[in-house]
Amino acid sequence: MDDLLIAGEKFSSRLIMGTGGAPSLEVLDQALVASGTELTTVAMRRLDPGAPGSVLDVLRERGIKVLPNTAGCFTAGDAVLTARLAREALGTNWVKLEVIADERTLLPDPIETFDAAERLVADGFVVLPYIGDDPALARRLELAGCAAVMPLGAPIGSGLGIRNPHNIELIVEAASVPVILDAGIGTASDAALAMELGCDAVLLATAVTRAQRPEMMATAMRAAVQAGRLAHQAGRIPRRRYAEASSPTGP
Amino acid sequence: MPAKGADVDIVVGGGIVGLSIAWRLSRSGRPVTVVDPAPASGASHAAAGMLAPVSEVTYTEEPLLRLGLAALRRWPSFATELAADAGLDAGTRPAANRLGGGGLDAGTGPAASDVGLDAGPEPANRLDEAGASAAVVSGLSEAARAGLDFRVDGTLAVAFGADDLAALGELAAFMEKLGLPVERLTGRECRRLEPMLAPSVRGGLLARGDAWVDPRRVTAALLTALDRLGVPIIRARVSELLRGGDQGDQVVGVRLAPSDRTPTPNRTPTPDGTAVPNQTATPDQTPTPDGTTVPQTVTPDRTVTPDRTITQDGTITQDRTTAPDQGPPLADIPAEIRGERVVLAAGAWSAGLADVPVRPVKGQIMRLRSPQPLLGRCVRGTVHGKSVYLVPRGDGELVVGATQEELGFDTRVTAGGLYELLRDAHELVPGVTELEIADVVAGLRPGTPDNVPLIGPSGTPGLVLATGHHRGGVLLAPLTAAILLGEESELAELCSPLRYRDIS
To answer: Does B500 touch chain A (CB under 8 A)?
Structure first.
């Protein structure tokens, strides 16, 4: 599979993992290894990067790049502050920007997100914003200097899959930065579909961490992302209403 | 008698695990010494005390379930023997004592003890549960039930909204596959059992065999029992383990920190006996390895803790259990203690003394108080995917817990932590907002990578581990002691520290 390129950095895995919801660090560790991920997000609120034995140690030990996120922030101000604290604590200027509109849906707030993105880009961050499946907003964020856009397939943790594949296609079509399908993945076929639609990567957490057998689901997701990417590159056949014989004719 | 010389087991850590081990060892005839700068003030002081292995089952954690079930089976006889050793009697009604004797409401309203506490909540419900919980209750003395507030009334896990209900349904199927006795209930059935539940409850799971206990009463009873057995409790901080033996590869005792011989928990006793956070305790302060940083207890209303007094050295004693052992005078605390075995039971601080994979996992928890119990059994709930539990005590105390935060040794109580607890508790039981806030605490659970404790011989001769109990210290305390006494060889395998190669 070809490399994923974000802000000039290469990743051979196109599966980005989240860490929330794992029953134990050991289970998380096994799942991360099985997923083959090279980039993993960590919620910076309620995490002390200096504390030994935390999830960060697991990532460091596995050589997985940490992508701090601003989960739990409701305003641009909170998000910018959290991103700066993360940069200071972790020594990375990458941030997955997440500004939530309400606790019930956890849908991203587009206005606060855009506001924070502008400020963070100006402050030298590599910004990967989590957004709704809105092609116009995705385009605007790219123009504002974001290093990628991360539209949702469905609300966080819902496992509903990709509710509007058409919008994801529109976002992919217009984007010249990587499109990372974030949130909503429930099972392997959802991840494969995201890649078939042309997304550059998939980010998921709950689908693996809350599965009955997380390690096995991580293996499935890894394969699905690869399969979807290959299928996308191979070029699918056009859909036809009627059969087309595959054997007798041809060269 | 105070144990002297090398033929003694030194238990490092006086939380519920360390004290339980010391008590069982001493009872079996072993000379034991406990070392802790402030016994019973760490995670045991914060813990809610749920003995709920069934309702706490999660995917991937079957080993923990096996341990929990075995531990629950041990609890009734453990509690009964403890109540006897501590001299608790059946008349020790926690409710009447606390509210009647402590002056909580003296003159400010109807006497709390008049509202039928002695009858217990909802006698009618107790009848239909009598059969199911008989197995657990058999062997539980009235003294243990009353003195430790040991209850076997089951846990009700409830769900709100279709999503949470579906998740609960899947969990129920998983539990049934594991052969666990749970019953699925409709929303109306849940509310018949617990009328204070919000009308929006959609359904629930009842685990009738789950129990709970008041950990503060248990540790107080353990301290009394140890005092009666003559077990010394040295109130000092262990600075390091003493290495010795032929190759210097053995643990032969502990060194006590000279500068910390005066216990310095970061709260200051006030004249009326309540605790306030010490002004000098900065949030970022790094605690010492064996736990001299104790949770900060914030007591908004200074009259709400009539049952507790803070002694001059900052330790907490509870009513009915007089301070059992204030330890020897400080001048008598030796620089080191040698022993045959060192049992490391220092909870979240264990990694400061030995190379063990234990990390602190912060939990904020609050205790509310009402004149009469709001609930008859433990209630857990998922509210939009987040879980919260409520544990009722006989005296009207209602424990609401708990956050899980990876913040190192931080024990600050935060607005966000309490907000989340109350927000979710209020969704479950709207009436909680009418209750008085009695106590808010942040404690540190000792977490391991696989959530299973480390119990048994370490790779180092002379060093035995009893740590890493994470969320299950209270439940697993009797089992931990049993494992160390060689009574549970099969389960000992599950928690053997040797599953981690690097331990020393």
So the answer is: no
Query: pLDDT for B286-319, tens place per residue?
Result: 444 444 444 444 433 333 333 433 334 433 333 3
Across the interface, whether the CB atoms of A46 and B59 are under 8 A apart is answered no
- The CA-based angle A101-A107-A112, given to 5 degrees, is 45
Delineate the domains of chain A, giving CATH numbers in brackets.
4-234 (3.20.20.70)
Does residue B115 have a pLDDT over 80? Answer: no
Q: Which two tokens stand for residue B243?
A: 């290495």
The predicted model scores a pTM of: 0.78
Q: Across the interface, do A51 and B60 touch by the CB < 8 Å criterion?
A: no
Nearest Cα residue in chain B from A42? B406
Query: Where residue B266 falls among pLDDT bands split at 50, 70, 90?
Result: very low
Task: Read off the tokens for B278.
Answer: 């010490």
Q: What is the pLDDT of residue B504?
A: 57
Closest partner CB to B450 (pick from A26, A54, A211): A26
ipTM topping 0.85: no
End-to-end CA distance of chain A: 30
Q: What does DSSP assign to residue B433?
A: G
Average pLDDT along chain A, 251 residues, taken 10 residues at a time:
93 94 90 95 82 84 93 93 91 94 91 95 96 96 96 94 96 96 96 97 95 95 97 92 77 61
Closest-CA residue in chain B for A27?
A: B450
pLDDT reported for residue B382? 82
Interface-testing mutation among B56, B59, B60, B470, with chain A (most A C-beta atoms within 10 A): B60
Nearest to A53 among B58, B357, B385 (CB): B357
Residue B402: cis peptide before it, omega within 30 degrees of 0: yes
DSSP conformation letters of B202-248: EEEEEETT-EE--HHHHHHHHHHHHHHHT--EE-S-EEEEEEESSSS
A146: left (phi over 0), alpha (psi -120 to 50) or beta: beta
How confident is the model over B444-460, as a mean pLDDT? 94
Q: What per-residue confidence (pLDDT) applies to B503? A: 57
**Contact between residue B159 and residue B428 where contact means Cβ atoms under 8 Å apart:** no
What is the C-alpha to C-alpha distance for residues A74 and B365, in angstroms, rounded to an integer?
Answer: 24
What's the rounded mean pLDDT across residues B149-159? 93
State whether residue A25 sits within 8 Å of chain B by CB: yes
- A213 vs B contacts (CB less than 8 Å): 59-60
* Count of pairs with CB atoms under 8 A, one residue in A, one in B: 64
Within 88-127 of A, beta carbons closer than 8 Å to B belong to 103-104
Angle, helices B473-484 vs B215-229, to 10°: value is: 30
A214 contacts in chain B (CB < 8 Å): 59-60
* B57 vs B64: CA distance, rounded Å: 8
Q: What is the pLDDT averaged over residues B368-390? A: 88
Among B60, B358, B403, whose Cβ lies nearest the Cβ of A23? B60
Contact B351 A27 (CB under 8 A): no
Which residue in B60, B359, B410 is closest to A53 by CB distance?
Answer: B359
Q: Poorest-confidence range of A35-49, B215-229, B481-495?
A: A35-49
Catalytic sites of A, residue numbers:
96
User: What phi and psi values does residue A230 have, to the nearest 5 degrees?
Assistant: -60, -45
Higher pLDDT, B181 or B155: B155
Judged by a CB distance cut-off of 8 A, whether residue A36 touches chain B is no
Q: What is the pLDDT of residues B335-345, one digit of tens each?
A: 899 999 999 99
State how far the alpha carbon of A16 is from the alpha carbons of A114, A211, B423, in Å: 22, 17, 32
Q: Do A24 and B360 touch (CB under 8 A)?
A: no
Q: How many CB atoms lie within 10 A of CB B420?
A: 17
Contact (CB<8Å) A27/B450:
yes
